[in-house]
Amino acid sequence: MAERPRLLFAWELGDNFGHAGKIVCVARALADRYDVFIAAKNPGAIRQMAPDLDARLLPAPVVKTRNMQPDEAPGASFPGMLLQDGWDDPATLAPFVEAWWNLFDLVEPDVLIAQAAPTALLAARGLEMRRVILGSGYDNPPCATPMPLLFPEQAGAADTAARQEAMALATANATLEAAGQPAMAHFCDLLKVDLSLLVTWPELDHYEDRDALQPDLPPFIGPLAVREAGTEVGWVGRDGPRIFAYLRPGSPQSVAAFGALLAMAPRADIVIASPGIIDKEADLLRGAGAQVIDGPVRLAPLLERCDLGISHAGNGTATALLLAGVPQLFLPTQMEQTLFARTLGRRGFGLGIGGRYGKAEVAQAIDRVLGSREMQRRIDSALEGIRAHEETPAEVLAARAVMALCPPAA
């Protein structure tokens, strides 16, 4: 029997289960024809989403995100965002590129499938393996020079982005040249791969002008969202609104949301998925009547009758809620979430809150979303167009594309 080709999924950036979910969806569709390896930032998230997936788990080499300096400008484009993840200093980046090389030597993959894994993509340059980007928009941005701005309306954004892109490129090239690899002429060379899987729809893309920035852009194949994994939970049947919240504990945003939901719990039907929530906080919410799960929950049984979804605007959760027709409240905690909340908010699919706020502001926002007939109308109208795209599931299309790039053994 011919040896099966090896696929290595790589995940470096981001903490949400949405990253794990994208990998799980595609890996599950390929595992019967390939040997699947997953180098994950959080291996536990992979197993929580897919305990029976036939794949070998490895820890990914991950640079610890550093805090911004007081005089440092936030990332103005995708390369600028990477400066906090080791791409500002060759001495920081080089050991992690080396770690990826060693991992490649161990696995000997035929194909690298990068899901939010730019350092793995850098390490793979010049090697024989084929390279694939699996992303929902943010992590496979338009391939352009200069790279597109995240917030073009901000004063000085273009100058800031130019400086940051030059720094990220110089760091990457110093790392490559020290190892005897050719330098990149432009940062976007990192994104010139054998296959880019754009797992979203145009209506959900972080970059609304992608087609103008990249005329040869890859096709949109639709979002990947795991709806059948996690703890099974149902509505208890209260007369009040049915609210599902996916919130990461420990942030000011989740503290404010927990406070608002605590006040609503006696008169509403509330399910909260909060991986890592402390017992004291969970017990307080449960005592008021909310159901609290320390981990992901099975979304499918909840979404058909859900009146409101609250999240940090992580791509997986927010997309699943939208595709179920659920109005949303977004409480983003980082840039990718902020961009996705902006995308959905501009189209009237939800309401986002930024800046500093507390439980009173969250409660007011909840009332606005629950009372908005216009938001529901916009969601229903958009879903008519989105569902017209969905002839074949995205995981099937992604698997077919990978198989065409690297055919399985006969």
Task: Walk me through the topology.
Blueprint (H helix, E strand, L loop, with lengths): L5 E6 L5 H14 L4 E6 L2 H7 L6 E4 L18 H5 L7 H18 L3 E5 L2 H7 L5 E6 L21 H22 L16 E4 L11 H4 L28 E5 L5 H13 L4 E5 L5 H10 L2 E3 L6 H4 L4 E4 L3 H9 L4 E3 L4 H12 L3 E3 L6 H12 L2 H17 L4 H12 L5
Strand content: 5-15%
**Shape summary:** globular
Count of distinct structural domains? 2
Based on DSSP secondary structure assignment, what is the total number of beta strands? 12
* Broad structural category: alpha/beta
State the major sheet: 6 strands, parallel
What is the name of the CATH superfamily of the largest domain?
A: Glycogen Phosphorylase B
How many H/I helices?
15
Q: Mind telling me the CATH class of the largest domain? A: Alpha Beta
H and E order = EHEHEHHEHEHEHEHEHEHEHEHEHHH
Weakly predicted, low-confidence segments: none
Terminal residue distance:
8 Å
Corresponding CATH architecture of the largest domain: 3-Layer(aba) Sandwich
